[in-house]
Amino acid sequence: MKTVLQKSGILGFLIILNLSAFAQKLGVIDLKVEHLIDPLAIETATPRLSWKITSTEKNTQQSEYEIRVGTDKTSLNKGKDLVWKNHTVTDQSIWINYAGSPLQSKKKYFWQVRVKDNHGNRSAWSTIGFFQMGMAAADWHAQWITVSGKDTSARSPIFRKEFTLKKKIKSAMAYITAKGLYEAKLNGLRISDTYFAPGWTSYKNQLQYQVYDVTSFLTVGSNVIGASLGNGWYKGRIGFGNQHNFYGDTRALLLQLEVEYTDGTKETIKTDESWKYTYGPIMASDIYDGERYDARMEIAGWDTAGFKEDNKWTSVGLMNKGTEKLIAMSGPPVKKHEQFKALRVFKTPNGDTVVDFGQNLVGWVTLKSQGPAGTKITLSHAEVLTKEGNFYTENLRSAKAQNSYILKGGAEQIFEPHFTFQGFRYVKVEGYPGELNVDNITAVALYSDMQTTGKFATSNTLINQLQHNILWGQKGNFLDVPTDCPQRDERLGWTGDAQAFANTAAYNMDVAGFFSKWLRDVKADQQPSGLIPHVIPNVLGANDGASAGWADVSTIIPWDMYVAYGDRSVLETQYESMQKWVNYIRSVAKNNLWNSGFHFGDWLFYRPNDDNDGRAAVTDKYLIAQTFYAHSTQLLINAAEVLGKKEDAAKYRALLADIKAAFAKEYMTATGRLVSSTQTAYVLALQFDMLPEELRAACADRLVANIRDYGNHLTTGFLGTPYICHVLTRFGYNDVAYDLLMQESYPSWLYPVKMGATTIWERWDGIKPDGSFQTPDMNSYNHYAYGAIGDWMYRTIAGINSVAADPGYRTIVIAPKPGGKLTRASAELETLYGTVKSAWALENNLLKLDVTIPANTRAKIVLAGSSYEIGSGTYHFESSIK
Description:
Layout: E1 2-7, E2 10-15, E3 26-33, E4 48-55, E5 62-70, H1 73-77, E6 82-88, E7 96-97, E8 108-117, E9 129-132, E10 144-146, E11 157-165, E12 169-179, E13 181-186, E14 189-190, E15 194-195, E16 206-213, E17 221-230, H2 232-235, E18 252-261, E19 266-270, E20 276-279, E21 282-286, E22 290-294, E23 314-315, E24 317-319, E25 325-328, E26 334-341, E27 344-347, E28 353-369, E29 376-382, E30 384-385, E31 391-392, E32 402-406, E33 413-415, E34 422-430, E35 441-448, E36 454-458, H3 461-477, E37 478-479, E38 481-482, H4 495-508, H5 512-525, H6 553-565, H7 568-588, H8 621-642, H9 646-667, H10 679-687, H11 693-709, H12 721-730, H13 734-742, H14 750-754, H15 789-798, E39 800-801, E40 811-814, E41 824-830, E42 835-843, E43 846-853, E44 858-863, E45 866-870, E46 873-880
Parallel strand pairs: 16-25, 22-32, 40-44
Antiparallel strand pairs: 1-2, 2-46, 3-4, 4-7, 5-6, 5-8, 8-9, 10-24, 11-17, 11-20, 12-16, 12-18, 13-14, 13-17, 15-26, 18-19, 20-23, 21-22, 26-35, 27-28, 28-33, 28-34, 28-35, 29-32, 29-34, 30-31, 36-41, 37-38, 39-40, 41-42, 42-43, 43-46, 44-45
Helix pairs in contact: 4-6, 4-15, 5-6, 5-7, 6-7, 6-8, 7-8, 8-9, 8-10, 10-11, 10-12, 12-13, 12-15
């Protein structure tokens, strides 16, 4: 059946499918607690519950819900033995606060929900989800264990404990953390598919622990639990200046295994003085430098029952409890993802054996080999080849990024690292016995386990490759923390890169948990003065911070995440940090001007070599600082209003007026010309509303004139680039935004694509047109900051927009703005309510638009200057092209 709708000059066709009379009209799926599916370590006393609604009818809104929570799955299905039952008339389906009986440490709770909609339909009860509460501080009985004496060996220690279980096992949970990195096993099997646990946090303040359900690993009788430790970020080389032992000089393990028998009794196995340790085959392991593994040092059966310990096994040392707080893991763990078969194995002009995987990725290589004992195989990693086709590693600086394996002889072995990762497309292989072929070597991508939520495609293959590069830049650099780059001796959580990219990140993947975890460390590492460090976790100096556009991450990402996910708690948690940062700027400002201190400015802006005629796009750093002072103040006002802090909102509104007045007096002429006549200066002034309303159009004209003067090329760096197309579209220059996007020569987004990039580069010209490289000390080929254009691509090309006044895509605006000779574009976004789709095509002088809106949301369609409000469902619109 087809219904024709007419509204504001837009002719729309609503397609209604004929459904089986027996189809379930209303359903509930995707139950989450906080932002997690079936989590094992919830810390808050009032966890929040969310779900999605499915419906076969259009314009579906939830009218009420029923939730029940209990401690027994069977009883829950019968509606018995509940700790909370709630029936509420509301359309709210996300972030519902638990309000039942007090929740107990380490206890598992089961829950389900059913809903009623505005059409009178009632769903069946959902499938049952669960959540388990985390470990209360008083429930930790394990002791920190380490090696005896000083922990000076480069080798990885391995720890073991054999124990006997005498009864039938109902359940078993392992609570584990480490100072360093750990890999845990039970009865010879790795207990988890996660890597780099316990993750990287501000270790001096907070250390994550992980929880694993290990019931299936245990058996009645003898069992063995074991763990190996690596240096990781805790003890290994990190930051600049060959810095080691930043957080501590001793690796240590804390483990508590809690077993419940079917008769209701319990038993605990924990780290204490009864454990033994020795050293295993990992001879050295470092984040920057790689791993050395000697298979001849493997100890067969050490992690299984019945193993006989010899005199190399020593009693462990005990470490006193530190001052850091143990916290449950809240973000996604790092896991293995895509695997890449080698495209080719070839010889370079220099005679090296090199493998090409076709994609710049982050992770490691698995290698199959068989050969004589003592054979050493070395794998080196690189992102690019020289123009002559030779292996190139100068841009890694001092990072060796090298893994080596020594064979033990006998049967074929499979090698992969444990406590390091590399950023690479190419691998040089030395010492391989026999002929290396593509079946012997595989690349494995590792990154935080975030759901892919966005899809984006157009009729232009270069733009599609750009989107591919943006996504892979995110995957490679979202490895527990948002790093700047994954390959050289850096790999730090640079705040400027993260804030620039956060909105794009939230389109591509579900980053709610990823950023909420990291923001805890932004707050933890913030100085008492309010100063925000350049990198989080901070491994630089205490006062290395407060740079405009970097430190403003403390206000920008909390607000961006609130708008993207509708999660008020991120503002509640970070509000104090946001306020401290704005107050810090206020404390160092003079006459409301932030014109002091160190600033990176518009990092890596356009500056041609031997610039004799002033073409370098230098933007006054204090002008930039003033715009971000205003922006952070505005975001603090926004947060205060959401949280009902009316006095704060009024106070900072008055401050904001003074900040903008000071900007106009210091950096602007009476006609709106800025002291720095660069793209970035005009972009930031317009994006953050620094100019009086009557001068903004002229300012936009100057921006466009500048872009035209540079031949439709970008001259912006890290701070101007995220906003330039947004500003152009906002002020009526969508055609100029497309001209920038479609530009294929340097500097532009598509220049690296044309040069063969598979990720976003740090510099616009990381590889120059003649095939030579930019300066090797700052030339990453996997650096996501310039990928911030993805936000504009989703919002403007595909037209999927959030609404700050009704966040989390409760209200959606679909407003595509075609251009750039594109004939079609499409995007999908999996929101907390369901999938939003927008796809348009230009055909026969018509713009045809198909949209899908999830249940329990509403949307505004903006097309050809007219608008139409719709509810959930799938719709088709057509409009003539002027």
